[in-house]
Design goal:
The protein is an alpha+beta fold. The chain contains ten helices and four strands; from the N terminus they run H-H-H-H-E-H-H-E-H-E-E-H-H-H.
Length: 245
């Protein structure tokens, strides 16, 4: 290596070292619009878990640690495609409007727990909804009451509160009374090392144009600028602050 090449390389390394965590990840990864909106499938890893390989490795370590305390962490939802989210959205929209809600009321009702297709964190293969497989499953799995101090999954939630971040997993929609957007989801955790840079990449998309281009999305014409701007600010960005850094 000659002196010029050496100085160029040193300069590049110095510049890289000065980057933030998110910038480093974005430098390492190039995320396409299809990846960020759930149109690129995440292939199944071991045990048929549809999450990214890096996420699965961290999850496996966490699952093994929890098993020592008789907690069987099971994923009930990992990667979710755009098409599946579209089915969920359209199904709820039809049901709510048939019950007499106006289109705008139906949209607000859906947005209590469900995302607009193309905006779900589950599109990334970084987020998981979990239960304790050692407990008898209630009729409705993902209910906040199941995870409170008297709930069937209480032991799981206590363990996750104490240990999840050590394995890189963070609760997304916390029980902070000042948080807006989606309701509290004590079952939903995200692997920060991958999801944070993906969120940074997602923020650069023209998400309103992406949503409005989907003609199959029921209620699309009622998604005003005000609704979408509030949704981006409150539902996409008003999450656990640890996942924003």
């Amino acid at each position: 290596m000659n002196r010029k090449e050496f100085l160029q390389r040193i300069g590049f390394i110095s510049a890289l070292a000065s980057l933030s965590f998110s910038d480093k990840k974005l430098w390492q990864e190039t995320y396409t619009q299809d990846q960020l909106t759930g149109k690129t499938p995440v292939t199944a890893t071991t045990n048929n878990q549809h999450i990214q390989d890096e996420v699965y490795q961290a999850f496996s370590a966490m699952k093994k640690a929890a098993a020592k305390e008789n907690i069987d962490i099971q994923i009930v939802s990992g990667y979710r495609s755009f098409e599946r989210q579209l089915e969920i959205w359209n199904g709820k929209y039809q049901r709510f409007t048939q019950q007499g809600l106006s289109p705008t009321e139906a949209i607000k009702k859906i947005l209590e727990y469900s995302t607009i297709p193309g905006t779900s964190r589950h599109h990334w293969g970084t987020d998981i909804d979990i239960i304790d497989g050692n407990k008898k499953a209630p009729e409705t799995l993902l209910n906040p009451e199941n995870y409170n101090e008297n709930g069937v999954f209480c032991d799981l939630k206590v363990w996750m509160n104490k240990h999840a971040e050590r394995f890189g997993f963070y609760e997304v929609y916390t029980n902070n009374p000042n948080r807006k957007g989606f309701f509290y989801e004590p079952w939903h955790f995200s692997y920060k090392e991958v999801s944070s840079p993906m969120l940074e990449a997602y923020k650069k998309l023209d998400f309103k144009t992406i949503i409005r281009s989907e003609k199959r999305l029921l209620g699309n014409s009622h998604l005003s600028d005000e609704i979408l701007d509030n949704y981006f600010r409150e539902n996409i960005l008003d999450i656990n602050p640890a996942l924003l850094s």
